[in-house]
């Protein structure tokens, strides 16, 4: 009987749980799913990438690979490199995504990630410059969702952060006489990551209830979503509320407070993982 | 068309019209937003903005009154001199009003620029936007001035965000008055 109710009247089924302040998978309204992260060539197994990370948020699985290439800086910003994020939602991750050109959700997610990188200044583009107006690094960050079970943005931001922390850039010098660049693959330096942004997503139910880390089913039933990105100083890098039910300023404030606590949890997790792979 | 200062956006609304079978929803109207930039083809930024606008409009339009129909909103940017997103929001709302679609509430777009010294500037020009530390755009609903949409560029502290939100909610009154005046002017002629 309960299975019937879930498919026939999903909203009513959810409301019965929400009244008791919990969700069908046993979580509380403010509880996240188990987060696991695998970083690096040994665990994450993208051997061709310069940095990679695999993040699992419950069932949502997102993998990020960072490749660094050399290019000439743009004419109007001669001392800046490039960071090009791209989020892909291939048809293997969920039924609703068809193969073909990127859909609106993928493009909006790519824009969101680009905004987070820019707003938080986690990588300063000037750091990517090797020789002003001659040579700079281009970081292609490809974020691919392998399994979509809601909360794509949180997982993507986390995967990106973890992958960038793993990137080792070879040192490049420009030969004075020939003017050509010489790449020294033996000597590698990690990327300078200034800020650590962490995203926290909420789903709004019936205009009043806020639940954290929605699954795909919850996202479909929700009347709105909010994503807050904070950095370690408690500053807001992004408040992303793409329409949906109207919220009061006080409710937004609740979201922000929860996001700040989540940031601490994620930072601890990522520090633990980095420490465990550093001796290699 | 709405033009605060020199930013100008033309909005055209078509619907509720018959929807393609692949796009129709059985219980509500399917809303589609197309944003065309002034120069060039629509890119990822336009897609992201279309999603913001679409979900904002979906929250106010009573789509359940027109199931299996399609409502298409086309926005063309005529000139951009700052505060483009809020201009699009205002144009979208006025188009919805003009078309006579059933709405749960009105909304208006307000852009706040946070300058380096902490002062809040409403409705910034392109120059002010570039120099600002952070730019926050809010869509404020007419019922109880709740936040319908929020989008930020640059980083700010939590207090600053709340201050900008309060300023935006205050400014929303002026914009809603403008809506009232425009609609009054339009219908008093006929």
UniProtKB/TrEMBL annotation, chain A:
Residue span(s) of domain Exoribonuclease phosphorolytic: 31-170, 197-260
Transmembrane portions of the chain: none
Q: Which GO terms describe its biological process?
A: exonucleolytic trimming to generate mature 3'-end of 5.8S rRNA from tricistronic rRNA transcript (SSU-rRNA, 5.8S rRNA, LSU-rRNA); nuclear mRNA surveillance; nuclear polyadenylation-dependent rRNA catabolic process; rRNA catabolic process; TRAMP-dependent tRNA surveillance pathway; U1 snRNA 3'-end processing; U4 snRNA 3'-end processing; U5 snRNA 3'-end processing
The record's listing under InterPro entries reads:
ExoRNase_PH_dom1 (IPR001247), ExoRNase_PH_dom2 (IPR015847), ExoRNase_PH_dom2_sf (IPR036345), Exosome_comp_Rrp42_subfam (IPR050590), PNPase/RNase_PH_dom_sf (IPR027408), Ribosomal_Su5_D2-typ_SF (IPR020568), Rrp43 (IPR033196)
Q: Which GO terms describe its cellular component?
A: cytoplasmic exosome (RNase complex); nuclear exosome (RNase complex); nucleolus
**Signal sequence, start to end:** none
Q: What is the protein's major site of localization?
A: cytoplasm
Q: Where in the cell is it found?
A: Cytoplasm; Nucleus, Nucleolus
Question: What GO MF annotations does this protein's record show?
Answer: mRNA 3'-UTR AU-rich region binding
**What are the entry keywords?**
Acetylation, Cytoplasm, Exosome, Nucleus, RNA-binding, rRNA processing
Family per similarity comment: Belongs to the RNase PH family.
This chain's protein is named Exosome complex component RRP43
- The gene it comes from is Exosc8
TrEMBL record, chain B:
What Pfam families does this protein map onto?
A: RNase_PH, RNase_PH_C
* InterPro entries found in the cross-reference section: ExoRNase_PH_dom1, ExoRNase_PH_dom2, ExoRNase_PH_dom2_sf, PNPase/RNase_PH_dom_sf, Ribosomal_Su5_D2-typ_SF, RNase_PH
Where in the cell is the protein located? Answer: Cytoplasm; Nucleus, Nucleolus
Q: Which biological processes are named by the entry's GO terms?
A: nuclear mRNA surveillance; poly(A)-dependent snoRNA 3'-end processing; rRNA catabolic process; rRNA processing; U4 snRNA 3'-end processing
> Which is an annotated GO molecular function term of this record?
RNA binding
- Look up the domain of life of the source: Eukaryota
- Span of domain Exoribonuclease phosphorolytic: 2-102, 106-169
User: What's any one GO cellular component for it?
Assistant: nucleolus
Which keywords annotate this record? Cytoplasm, DNA-binding, Exosome, Nucleus, Phosphoprotein, rRNA processing
The UniProt subunit note reads as follows: Homodimer. Component of the RNA exosome core complex (Exo-9), composed of EXOSC1, EXOSC2, EXOSC3, EXOSC4, EXOSC5, EXOSC6, EXOSC7, EXOSC8 and EXOSC9; within the complex interacts with EXOSC3, EXOSC8, and EXOSC9. The catalytically inactive RNA exosome core complex (Exo-9) associates with the catalytic subunit EXOSC10/RRP6. Exo-9 may associate with DIS3 to form the nucleolar exosome complex, or DIS3L to form the cytoplasmic exosome complex.
State the family it belongs to. Belongs to the RNase PH family.
Name the chain's protein. Exosome complex component RRP46
Q: Which organism is it from?
A: Mystacornis crossleyi
Q: Which gene encodes it?
A: Exosc5_0
